[in-house]
Design brief:
This protein has 106 residues and is mainly alpha-helical. The chain contains six helices and no strands.
């Protein structure tokens, strides 16, 4: 399909084979990073639901997530990062301890 419709409208020339091959090879670029991100979500979810004890406070939650980040992030996490505050899936979205299912489904 791409070879048929992938033409500059100015020239109408077909897409060069080498460019087409580069596009095909780039199809999965970044998929490893996406996989690591999903691992981070799943590991954080399972850790908090398995080991967190109410009353330990928010610092314990953020510390647990930061520890997991050392294994799943390519760059060091920012100390002030609070992505957990918006991670509704694991707190109110009906996926409590179930975020791993996204990886399982793949």
């Amino acid at each position: 399909v791409l070879k048929k419709i992938g033409k500059p409208h100015e020239t109408g020339e077909p897409l060069p084979d080498d460019l087409f091959e580069k596009l095909v090879k780039s199809k999965n670029f970044g998929s490893g990073t996406r996989y690591l991100r999903q691992c981070h979500f799943a590991m954080t979810d399972l850790e908090l639901h398995a080991r967190y004890k109410p009353g330990e406070g928010a610092d314990a939650v953020f510390a647990a997530e930061a520890k997991i980040a050392t294994k799943t992030m390519l760059m060091p996490a920012i100390k002030e990062d609070r992505f957990l505050c918006g991670f509704g899936h694991i707190f109110a979205g009906g996926y409590s301890a179930g975020d791993y299912s996204y990886l399982w489904a793949e």
